[in-house]
Amino acid sequence: MKKLIKSLTLVSIFAVLALAMTACDWDAIMNPYIPVTSVRITSQRSSFSYGSSLMLISEVLPAHATNKNVTYSIVQETTTAPDVQINGDTLTAGGVGVVNLIATSQSGNIFSTVFRVDVTEIMATDIQNANNRDRTHTTTYFEPFNTNYMTNTGWRHSDNGVLYQVGQSGNTGNNRISLRSGGYMQLRNPLTVNTGDILTVSFFARAPHIGGTPVNIRYNFGNAWLNIGTAPSISYTVSSWSRVSREITFERSGRVSIGIFSGSWNELLIDDITIALTSRVPSFAAGQSITLTSNVSPSNATNKDVTYEIVAEDTTATGVSINGSVLRATGSGVIAIRPRTSSFVGPVFYVLVT
């Protein structure tokens, strides 16, 4: 009897051990450990602007690896950007330069290849003079035609190739322009205007064909062409020159394009164009000085330092000098100033010397 009990006890022990081993084997079979075999940094961007951040993303293979977590680290020897920080999967830097990174799997120590990130400047996109505008000044941009008018004044024309031709016997004996087939002429470079500025466009026009040709004077802040004035379209039904003049007061600031459009398929002759912009401008007395100030956009641009240069060909004041941001002149007139940062050249603005 004792032998039977002993035998049953041993069988029970072996049965329990067998069941335990079977459970362990079953778990291993059902949930096997899958090691990582490769890691690759796959962030969509390989650069970001100083002051912002970059989200780091990695691809871990195989896709069903047991532990796909990775840790990012900086390759200090080849990183030039200052104050680089990694917080989880977010990368930041304290200045421009290069950051070299690797990703390491948290299981198996599998490393990615080095991933390069460029930290760049936030570029300036606009510079506007911020001095008090206490005087009115009128700038005339184009005088009547001459033989070099088309090459010297910066007009461009419609791209369909049917547009203007330069001929003789204009209204004042100089060259005149012929707009054909609905063509147009447009200033190559937009003008910089401020709220309250007054723009006047005037010229002589003639429609030599019966039925006449409407002429449209338009402006464009970059979105769509808009007509200037209350009656911008004028038809000419006789072969005589007529004076066209339109004026607009701008209700917003910005860069504006100016264009003259032929309103039909008939020929439109144009001569003696004058464009005048009356603006409120900064001023100072001859023999004195003014300290120039500017607003740089965007406000978080990396380098907002502005330098100023004198545009000699558009300056009429005498004894002009500039030292940093301090502008001086000994004689009255107008000074044309071009501001710039390390990454952007701003539009010319004017200062009046009284």
Describe the model.
The chain is mainly β. The protein is 9% helix and 42% strand. The protein contains 2 helices and 30 strands. Strands 11, 13, 14, 17, 20 and 22 form a 6-stranded antiparallel β-sheet that branches. Strand 29 and strand 30 form a beta hairpin. Mean pLDDT is 78; it is low at 143-174 and 230-238.
Features:
Immunoglobulin-like, 4 domains, 2 helices, 42% strand, six-stranded antiparallel beta sheet, 354 residues, mainly beta, single chain
**Could you name the CATH homologous superfamily of the largest domain?**
Galactose-binding domain-like
Kindly report how far apart the N and C termini lie. Answer: 130 Å
Tell me the strand percentage band: 35-45%
Average pLDDT for all residues:
78
The largest β sheet comes out as: 6 strands, antiparallel
Number of domains: 4
At the third CATH level, what is the topology name of the largest domain? Jelly Rolls
Radius of gyration from the alpha-carbon trace, in angstroms: 37 Å
Helix content: under 10%
Low-confidence stretches: 143-174, 230-238
Total DSSP E strands: 30
> Could you say what the CATH architecture of the largest domain is?
Sandwich
Number of helices: 2
Overall shape: it is elongated
CATH structural class of the largest domain: Mainly Beta
Q: Which structural category fits the helices and strands?
A: mainly beta
Furnish the topology, listing elements before pairings.
Blueprint: H1 2-30, E1 38-41, E2 47-49, E3 54-55, E4 58-61, E5 70-74, E6 85-87, E7 90-92, E8 97-105, E9 115-120, E10 126-129, E11 135-142, H2 149-152, E12 155-157, E13 165-167, E14 176-179, E15 184-187, E16 191-193, E17 198-206, E18 215-220, E19 226-227, E20 242-249, E21 254-262, E22 268-281, E23 283-284, E24 289-291, E25 294-297, E26 307-310, E27 321-323, E28 326-328, E29 333-340, E30 349-353
Parallel strand pairs: 2-9, 23-30
Antiparallel strand pairs: 1-4, 3-7, 5-8, 6-7, 8-9, 10-25, 11-22, 12-15, 13-14, 14-22, 15-21, 16-21, 17-20, 17-22, 18-19, 18-21, 24-28, 26-29, 27-28, 29-30
